[in-house]
């Protein structure tokens, strides 16, 4: 039964009572007739004190057998202790060894990234990685709550896909029975558009895949994306929505995961500043500003990672850049009717140099314009016939965006590399374990 033993995060409800805890030995030390065992169970870490006079000799001696990460069951009285980590301590009366661990490869000394990634299945047990995973789970919950409260319905997009959506150069292909190649989806957006025409406001939330041949700190080959899609909505609507979403989840993470942010030694003050309104500027204004601070691409090019870092580190709030050159962006984006060299899109750059966390746009809703844009870009029409259909049967103005989950976690947690933001990262040069 799940509730015959106590989780460390609920010890506050059991002060003065005897409880049984189950978990793994995090650390131990002894001083003469008293020994201290640190137990972790996934919900927290607690110090357990065992004195020779309180337990049978056999049990006290088992202290010597215990190795780091051995699994144990422990029974004792919960005591409040302000000095103890977590605020509580256990006075042990019984201890059972479940399994003695072999010599644990991850020690408190510094290890290199490759060493740790090769042992990701064990590395996840560290305090720091646990904190990141808890923040990830909190963020996912907050995002779902936000969309549910705003009247969006979750609609799942397929992973096997007959076409590309974000450019042919980053496609993973898989043999698909007698049908030739299927592709792992780069984005759920096109399906979200179909869903929005059926249900009004939807969001997809799932893994997406990019065969990115770049080893940067921002790129995974498998990452999770949240993609809201709204009918009867324009670029301004999704810029507002993006601001609301980010403000909402930041407040939630600060409220519920402050202890984990502390474990990560994250500068919490800079996260508290993330409130509406964010900074907005056009691509042209961004280029002017970049020129002043010594960067920027030729007009027409997308902003590179260095430019994004340079720009976003000028502000302590997220930066929304809108109306990029059409030629730099995807085929489904709607041109700006006031200047057709531009597109009605926006990217959100996180502050502190974390770069793009959101990409989105108003969609091309006109049948002929969409078809001619696809022809210009050399996009095969047949696998996307269904998508073009949406413009045949009651087309409406609609818009949406995609938030990269791991990039957002990297920013919130202050990570140097996005690979720590996902339980088992998939990178160009790694898919083990
Ligand atoms: O800007 P992107 O490519 O936009 C889309 O895929 C649109 N279809 C979204 C939409 O309008 N529904 O990707 C969106 C976000 C990026 O801003 C970034 O946060 C993240 O997805 N992302 C990646 N994250 C990790 N590794 C990668 N290789 C990523 N590529 C994109
Ligand atoms: Mg983008």
Give the topology, please.
Blueprint: E1 18-31, E2 34-40, E3 45-51, H1 57-65, E4 71-80, E5 88-99, H2 113-118, H3 120-123, H4 127-149, E6 153-154, E7 160-161, E8 173-175, E9 181-184, H5 189-199, E10 201-209, E11 222-231, H6 235-256, H7 258-263, H8 268-272, E12 279-282, H9 283-292, H10 305-312, E13 319-322, E14 335-336, E15 339-343, E16 345-350, E17 355-362, H11 367-376, H12 385-389, E18 398-404, H13 405-413
Parallel strand pairs: 3-5, 6-10, 12-13
Antiparallel strand pairs: 1-2, 1-4, 2-3, 4-5, 7-9, 8-9, 10-11, 11-18, 13-16, 14-15, 16-17, 17-18
The protein binds 4-amino-1,4-dioxobutan-2-aminium adenosine-5'-monophosphate and magnesium ion.
Magnesium ion binds at residues 347, 356, 359.
Q: Can you walk through the features of this model?
A:
By secondary structure, the protein is of the alpha+beta class. It is built from 13 helices and 18 strands. It has 2 domains: 98 residues, Nucleic acid-binding proteins (OB fold (Dihydrolipoamide Acetyltransferase, E2P)); 302 residues, 2-Layer Sandwich (BirA Bifunctional Protein, domain 2), CATH 3.30.930. Helix 4 crosses helix 6. The longest helix is centred in the first third of the chain and has 23 residues. The two termini are 31 Å apart. The model has no long low-confidence stretch (mean pLDDT 96). The site of magnesium ion (MG) has 3 residues, from strand 17.
């Amino acid at each position: 039964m799940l509730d015959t033993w106590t989780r460390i995060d609920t010890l506050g409800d059991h002060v003065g009572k005897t409880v049984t805890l189950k978990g793994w030995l995090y650390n131990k030390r002894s001083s003469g007739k008293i020994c201290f065992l640190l137990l972790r169970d996934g919900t927290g870490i607690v110090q357990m004190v065992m004195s020779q006079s309180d337990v049978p000799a056999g049990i006290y001696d088992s202290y010597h057998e215990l190795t780091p990460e051995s699994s144990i069951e422990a029974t004792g009285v919960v005591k409040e202790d302000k000095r103890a980590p977590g605020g509580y301590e256990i006075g042990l009366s019984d201890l059972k060894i479940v399994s003695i661990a072999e010599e644990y490869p991850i020690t408190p000394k510094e290890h290199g990234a490759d060493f740790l990634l090769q042992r990701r299945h064990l590395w996840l047990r560290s305090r720091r990685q646990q904190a990141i995973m808890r923040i990830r789970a909190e963020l996912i919950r907050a995002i779902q709550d936000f969309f549910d409260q705003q009247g969006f319905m979750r609609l799942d997009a397929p992973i096997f896909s007959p076409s590309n959506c974000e450019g042919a150069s980053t496609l993973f292909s898989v043999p698909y029975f007698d049908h030739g190649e299927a592709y792992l989806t780069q984005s759920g957006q096109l399906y979200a558009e179909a869903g929005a025409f059926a249900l009004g406001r939807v969001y997809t939330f799932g893994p997406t895949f990019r065969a990115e041949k770049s080893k940067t700190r921002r790129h995974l080959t498998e990452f999770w994306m949240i993609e809201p899609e709204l009918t009867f909505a324009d670029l301004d609507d999704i810029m507002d929505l993006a601001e609301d979403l980010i403000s909402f989840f930041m407040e939630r993470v600060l409220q519920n995961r402050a202890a984990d942010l502390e474990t990560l030694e994250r500068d919490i003050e800079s996260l508290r500043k993330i409130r509406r309104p964010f900074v907005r500027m056009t691509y042209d204004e961004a280029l002017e500003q970049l020129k002043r601070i010594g960067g920027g691409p030729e007009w027409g090019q997308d902003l590179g990672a260095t430019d994004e870092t340079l720009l976003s580190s000028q502000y302590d709030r997220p930066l929304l850049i809108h109306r990029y050159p059409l030629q730099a962006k995807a085929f489904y984006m709607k041109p700006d009717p006031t200047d057709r060299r531009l597109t009605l899109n926006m990217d959100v750059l996180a502050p502190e140099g974390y770069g793009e966390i959101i990409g989105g746009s108003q969609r091309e809703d006109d049948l002929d314009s969409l078809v001619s844009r696809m022809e210009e870009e050399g996009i095969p029409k047949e696998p996307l016939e269904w998508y073009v259909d949406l413009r045949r049967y009651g087309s409406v103005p609609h818009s949406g965006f995609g938030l990269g989950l791991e990039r957002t976690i990297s920013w919130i947690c202050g990570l140097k590399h996005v690979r720590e933001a996902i339980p088992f990262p998939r990178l160009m040069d790694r898919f083990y374990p």
